[in-house]
Amino acid sequence: MTPAARVEAAIVLLDEIIAAAVGGGAAADTLIQRYFKTRRYAGSKDRRAVRDLVYHVIRALGERPENGRAAMIGYARAEAPDLLALFGTDPRGPVAVVAGEPAAALGLAPEWLIAKFAAEYADAETLLAALAERAPLDLRVNRLKTTRSAVLPLIPGAVPTVHAQDGLRMVEALNVEDLPVYADGRVEVQDEGSQLIAAACSAQPEMTVVDLCAGAGGKTLALAADMENRGRLIACDADRSRLSRLGPRAARAGAANIETRLLDPGREADALGDLLGAADVVLIDAPCSGTGTWRRNPEARWRLTPQRFARLTALQAHLADLGARLLKPGGRLVYAVCSLLPEEGRLQAEALSKAHPDLALDGGGAQILRPDRDETDGFFIAGYEKSC
């Protein structure tokens, strides 16, 4: 592909990503993979260059642009004038820019979200800038099969994470799926902050543990390792597709104590009646805006609307209440979101304490993880103990 053809490919992909953001379609990563599956002529260098350009543009634009061309023109004018010089130079590239043509403006996030961050954080601009950066790749060592010290020399460029006891961080880019230690389940891809959420549960062997919003099961697998495959670990989710991915991952990891339950949205308690008041630990990694994961999913800024945000906060309150009802006396509940907005974190935790006076925040209180300070994705984590 010529340089101009790469720019045109990035514009086409940006159009698809913008449409998906409007219509709730696939993530940018998935769309990029699909695009190149049907374009075998693009070599590995072409694919990498186009992908990198797409993500550079997405990270630079806080508001959802009108279309891919406007996004590219706005980015090129502000950040990469050499790209702008390619317009109109190659029949396989973008046509020349005309006077008055729309161009997207650079920014950190939609204005309504910037206002929310500014109201909660004195250093909101610093935090938002950190969320626009590219995230490192973290791995979790699977203690069901090995130890961090044993795996460390087997992965080029890996260093121990600062906070998570089983974490490794990749200093250089690496295709993890090509590693033997990944293929045989000795490591899993998991952000250090996500590992700390699982650790906050303090799951132990022989416990009954409920992962109420398990998704594809990253934290579930970490809990299984903490439980040493002994006890009951119930992984729940309302999304059949995501939950179905847990089985193969658990088999590779050697996690043998996991049960899965598909939940009916709004009627989750129907599938969990036998667990009401019976769980030693309940983890609620609630569906959220994902503002804390913008480093990995920068196009998520384009997907969120005030209306969707309101629906998410209502769902979080519902799930927090259900989690409290599942907990037995003396049990532990961990509420977490990969968000740094108070409506999803601090205010939800305060509301849960008021609604369930038998739940007391643990001694450490709520914790906020930030990329600029903790070098993790952004998370809110609150741990509770239920009085006996």
From TrEMBL:
Q: Which family does it belong to?
A: Belongs to the class I-like SAM-binding methyltransferase superfamily. RsmB/NOP family.
Q: Which organism is it from?
A: Sphingosinicella xenopeptidilytica
Q: Which principal EC class is assigned to this enzyme?
A: transferase
MF terms (GO), sorted A to Z: methyltransferase activity
Instruction: State which Enzyme Commission number(s) the record gives.
Output: 2.1.1.-
Alphabetic keyword roster: Methyltransferase, RNA-binding, S-adenosyl-L-methionine, Transferase
A biological process (GO) annotation for this entry?
methylation
Record's InterPro entries?
MeTrfase_RsmB-F_NOP2_cat (IPR049560), MeTrfase_RsmB-F_NOP2_dom (IPR001678), RCMT (IPR023267), RsmB-like_ferredoxin (IPR054728), SAM-dependent_MTases_sf (IPR029063)
Gene3D superfamilies assigned = Vaccinia Virus protein VP39 (3.40.50.150)
Using the record's annotation, list all stretches that form the SAM-dependent MTase RsmB/NOP-type domain: 113-387
Q: Which residues bind S-adenosyl-L-methionine?
A: 237, 264, 285
**Positions in coiled-coil regions:** none
Q: Which residues form the active site?
A: 338 (nucleophile)
CDD domains xrefs: AdoMet_MTases
Query: This protein's superkingdom?
Result: Bacteria
Protein name as it appears in the record? RsmB/NOP family class I SAM-dependent RNA methyltransferase
